Amino acid sequence: MSINASSPHASNPLAAGFNSATALDFPSAFRFGSATAAFQVEGASGEDGRQESIWDAFCKVPGAVFGGHDGSVAADHYHRMPQDVALMADLGLDTYRFSTSWPRIKPGDGKLNPTGLDFYSRLVDELLEHEISPWLTLYHWDLPQALGERGGWANRDTAYRFADYALEVFEHLGDRVSDWTTLNEPWCSSFLSHAGGEHAPGHTAPSEAVAAAHHLLLGHGLATSAMREAAGPGHRLGITLNFTLADPADPDSPADTDAARRIDGSFNRVFLDPVFRGSYPSDVLEDMAQAGLGRHIRDNDMEIIAAPINVLGVNYYNGVMVAGPVDPPIADSELAFASERGLARRSPMVGSERVQEISRGLPRTAMGWEVQPEGLERLLLRLQDQYTGPAGIPMVITENGAAYQDVPDADGFVDDSRDRLAFIDAHLRAVHRAMERGADVRGYLVWSLLDNFEWAFGYSKRFGIVRVDYESQRRIPKASALWYARVAASHQVPAWT
C-alpha cells in the first residue's frame, strides 16, 4: 500500500508560520528513527521471571487506568520483536530507542535474570542485523514494585539501586549499544506521579514529589559516572527531559510573566540546571521551599548530578499560555483529567499550583494538548543558547508525536494525513528552522512506532505511526508511517503542493 502524502493538500494545516510548500533537506548523518517504552509495548508481564513493577500494581487500583486496562499484553512486542524490527527496517528507520524493563532484568531488584536480559540482547542483535542503531533507555517509569514498597524514588536508596542496575545492563550490552539514556522524563516519574497522582504510584504529596525529583537526578548522576568509567570513546551517555514552553497571556502583566517563570522553573529548569550547572535555580528552591526540595540536598549531590553527558534527549509535545494566579486555587475535583476518570487529583506543578492555563484557540490533539510546532523551534534555540551550546553537547529529539482519533478503513488502514502526518511534518520543519539558526540537533525519533498502552489512558489514545489491532495484534502502517519512511529514505521533508 502506498500513499502520496503531499498531493491532496494545498498546505500543511498545522504548520502555521512555516512555508510548507518548500521541501527541506536534512544532513545525511541526521538520524530518523522511532521510540517505544518497555511497559507500553512488551506485554508478557508475568513471563520468564519478570516480576511486578509499580505500574502493574497501579493498574490494579480501581479507576486508576482508563477502562481498567493494564500492560499485561500491550502490543505483544516481547513475542513479536523480530517482526517489529523487520517493520522498522521496511520503513527505513536508522535508529530505534527502546527501554529496558528493570523488573524483567532484575526482578524485585534482586539477582540478574539471564532470561530477561537475553530478550534485550536478542533485540539489539536483531536491530544491528537490520542496520538499525539501538538507543537504550534504562528507566521509562517501570520501577520494580519491591522498591516501590520501600518508598520508591522518594527513598534516597533507590538512586543507588538504579546505578547498580544501570551498570549491570551496560556491562552486558555496552559492547553493541552506543547510545544510552539514563532516565526518560523524570518530571513524570516525580511530579506527575507523586504530586499529581496521575501516574504510578498515584500519590498526591508535594513533599514526596520533590524528594523523588532529587533522587531521580541523583540516580542519573550516579549511573552516568559508573557507566562512564566502563565506557569507550564510542559511547554516548545522556538523559531525556520533557519540556514545555510557557508564554505569559499578557507579557506586560507581572502576574502573568511570573506565572510563566514558575511553570518554566517547575517543569524545565528544575532538571536542566542541576544537570548542566550543578545547582537548582534559586527561584525554584524558593517556589518549592514549602515542599522541601532543598532539604534533600546532601554534600556532593550536585556534583554527582552534574556528571558530564554527551547528548541531551529532548521530548516535546506542546507549549502552554499561562496567567496567574487563580484565587482560590483550583479544586482537585475540577482538574480535567480527574473529572474524566472520577478520581481525586491535584496539580503536579509544585510551587505553581495556582497558575492558570489559557487556551489560545490552537488545534488540539486527542490528549487535549495544543499543537504548537513553533514552540519546538524556540525551545531548541533556548537550549542551545543557555544549556547545550555552552557545554558543547548536541541534542536529539527523542520523542515527538501526537495522539488522534484514528478511523481505520475496512482493511485497518488509517489515513492520518491531515492530523498526525501534518503534526510530524510541522515539527520537523520547526527542527529544521532551529538548525538553520544554529541549534545542534542530530536526530528525530518519532513517538511512537506502535500504538500502545498510554499509561493512565490505557489503550484509549493512539500515538503510533503503525496501527495495532489489539484483538489480532496485526500491525498496519498508517499514512504517517509511509510518509515518514519517505522522509527517512531521502533525508528530505517533502513540500505540500
TrEMBL record:
UniProt-listed PROSITE patterns: GLYCOSYL_HYDROL_F1_1, GLYCOSYL_HYDROL_F1_2
Catalytic residues in the record: 399
Swiss-Prot/TrEMBL keywords: Glycosidase, Hydrolase
SUPFAM superfamilies cross-referenced by the UniProt entry: (Trans)glycosidases
The EC number(s) this enzyme carries: 3.2.1.21
InterPro entries xrefs: GH, GH_1_N_CS, Glyco_hydro_1, Glyco_hydro_1_AS
Gene3D superfamilies named among the record's database cross-references: Glycosidases (3.20.20.80)
Family indicated by similarity: Belongs to the glycosyl hydrolase 1 family.
Protein name: beta-glucosidase
